[in-house]
Every structure is written in structure tokens, then in C-alpha cells.
Amino acid sequence: MSKEDQSPYQRLADLLIGAKLAIALRAMAEYRIADKLANGPMQVDALARETGLAPEPLRRVLRGLAQFDVFRETADGRFENSNVSEYMREDAVQSLRAAVLFLNHDVSLRAWLELEETLKDGRSRFVDVNGAALFKLFDADERLNNYFTKCMVDLYGAEAAKIAVGYPFGQFENIIDIGGGQGHILAAILAAHKGLRGTLFDIAPTAALARDFLRDRGLSDRCDVVGGDFFSAIPRGYDAYLVKSVLHDWDDAKATEILKRCREVMAENSRLLIIEEIITPGQVVGNTNRFVDLDLLIHFGGKERTKSDYCGLMRSAGFSLKDIVPVKDSFFSVVEGIPT
Questions:
Q1: Neighbouring residues of 173: CB distance < 8 A, sequence distance ≥ 6
Q2: Buried b (16+ CB within 10 A) or exposed e, 17-29
Q3: CA distance linking residue 118 with residue 110, whole number of Å
Q4: Do domains 3-92 and 108-339 have the same CATH topology?
Q5: pLDDT 10s digits, 275-320
Q6: Separation CA 69–CA 88 (nearest Å)
Q7: R_g of the chain, CA atoms, integer Å
Q8: Phi/psi at 233 (nearest 5 deg)?
Q9: In what order do the strands lie in the sheet with 174-178?
Q10: How far apart are CA 314 and CA 338, in angstroms?
Q11: Which of 3, 189, 256, 266 is deepest in the core (most CB within 10 A)?
């Protein structure tokens, strides 16, 4: 039944079990059920043998998810992928498997359970309940780091090519991607602008992933990877400083600090390029993750921002707004800043 066919009562009844749906999806993603169904319907007993799970509870979870069109049960009791569960396959174009695993990871769920306290004062409880900030946890948990990195690619990977041609990056000789993650945005920019050289800058565990990612795309000769902390020091000597989907992870004080580190090493003719979704009151967010603003609050104490918010951040860090360039067919915009 489509959302349009549901009564408002049933719609709310479905929404209120959302946390349980998410946990069930996480379990199916963890055991790669959609991957195992890639070649067609399977009996639950066979799925159970391949995964080491108990047949009866597995059947009940699959049947429960099938009510929401995640998997389908055939007339003879086998299960197969639906158009929805196909996106849980590891090899799917724009797979959401890593997003399921990261956004519903224990570290996230623990922090979300503190939402009531966060509502009282606006403070994230992530560190309180997990013992360290998310990016610090990556140092000790390679799998969590991989989930996060792959999640970012899966959610935003389709935007990379749009961003690459949606702004004239070719006017620069070199560019540094601050907090560039695995490197999919920088890779797309370099692929679209053959005369451009790049550097990716991120924390050491993520930088290690980026080296492999960029090497596999044949970009090692045009792109360096540097590990470091953008709160401490940022490399100097670049025409453009790209900060994509980074500032929204932080509150205003921390976001301003990142921009100040950029300003300290930028030449007067360098450009600051902030790539984020610009929030407009009354408009639905374009992000695939409709709760992205709340995830930012819960995970980091960060937030999505308006044009006015970004103007304020840049003024505080020594920049003025030059232009905002909406990326065609994307929810992202390029906010261009000039050192003052």
C-alpha cells in the first residue's frame, strides 16, 4: 500500500515503529541477505544455513520487512529481493547497505536515545554515551570507519559528477579537499578538469582509505593524500580550499575554527569553496537522509545552515561572501568566499 492510500492513522502507526524497522534492516544488511538473494528466491532454511542464523526468527524478520516492500515472500514461502531491498546489495549502484549499517550502528543509536536530554539544551550526548567523539572512534574501529566512509560515498556519490561540472574548478591550478573522506568528490573534480592537481587532507585512518581509492582510479600522479587534523594545521599553497560536507558536522564555534585554520594559510588570491546544502525555510531538504540535520545534532552537535548562517561564519573567520553557485540538478551549492 502506498503512502497516499494509507489513512493518517495507519501512516502514524507505521512511523512509530521506525526504530524497530531500522534495527531489522541493520541485521539483514549485516548478514548480506539482499546479496544472497541476488540470483533469485531462496528458501529460508538455505538462507539460514549460509548465514548461521536460526530459520524461524529469520523467516519472521523477512516477513515483517516484506510488509514494507523490503523483500517479498513468494506463494511457496521463499523470499526474494524487492525493488527496495535491491539497494541493500553491496554491488548495487548507489547501494545503501553501508548507510543502513552506519546510521543504525550502536554508537548512533545510543546517542539518539538521549534525544530528550538534547532537546533541553541542544547539546549532543554522543561523547557522553560512547566515551569519545565519532571521528576519534574511527582510530580504534576500522569497520565503523569503513561504514562511515562508504555511507558518505553511497549517499552523496551521485552528486560528485554534478559538483565537478557545476562550478568552474578549471580556473585553478591546484586544489585541496579539506576533510575529503575517501576522495570521491575530489576524484570527480580531477576527472572533469584534466589540468588540475589535487590534495586530499583528512585524518590518518581515512587518508589511508583515500590513497587506495584514488590510486585505483589512476589519480595518484595528480593527487597527493595528507593525513592530519584540520583543527591543528592545514597545508598551505593552494589556489582553492574546498570544504565539502564538513562544516555542518560542527557547531558555529568549531566551524569558525576550521575556517580560521584555512584563512591562516591562504594567499589573498586563494578561494574558499564551501559545498553544503543551503537550508531554505519551508523547503524539504534535498538530502537522501531526510533526518540529516538531526543526525548532525545527535552525532556532533552540528547543523545544516542557511545563507545568512554561512555569511556569519565567514565574517568571523576572515572571509566575505563572493557568490553562491547552486549545482545543477543537485541539492548542493558552492559557497565561494574571499579572504578579507
A1: 195, 196, 197, 239
A2: eeeebeebbbbbb
A3: 13
A4: no
A5: 999 999 888 999 999 999 999 999 999 999 999 999 999 999 999 9
A6: 13
A7: 22
A8: -160, 145
A9: 223-227, 197-202, 174-178, 240-244, 271-276, 333-339, 319-326
A10: 9
A11: 189
Q: Establish whether 248 is a catalytic residue.
A: yes
Least Cα distance to 201 among 185, 218, 221 occurs for: 185
Find out whether 4 and 40 touch, Cβ atoms under 8 Å. Answer: no
* Matching residue, cell 541485521: 27
Separation of CA 248 from chain center: 11
d(CA 103, CA 193): 33
CATH class of 3-92: mainly alpha
- Separation of alpha carbons 266 and 239, rounded Å: 8
Cα 151 from Cα 163, distance rounded (Å): 18
Instruction: Exactly one of 105, 193, 248, 299 is catalytic; name it.
Output: 248
Which of 232, 2, 22 has the alpha carbon at shortest distance from 106? 22
pLDDT digits (tens, 9 = 90+) for 171-206: 999 999 999 988 999 999 999 999 999 999 999 988
Q: How many helices (H) and strands (E) would you count in the chain?
A: 16, 9
What are the residue boundaries of the structural domains of the chain, listed by start?
A: 3-92, 108-339
Q: Is the dihedral of CA 229, 323, 299, 64 positive or negative?
A: negative
CB 230 within 8 A of CB 258: yes
| CATH fold label, 108-339 | Rossmann fold (3.40.50)
CB contact at 8 A, 37 and 79: yes
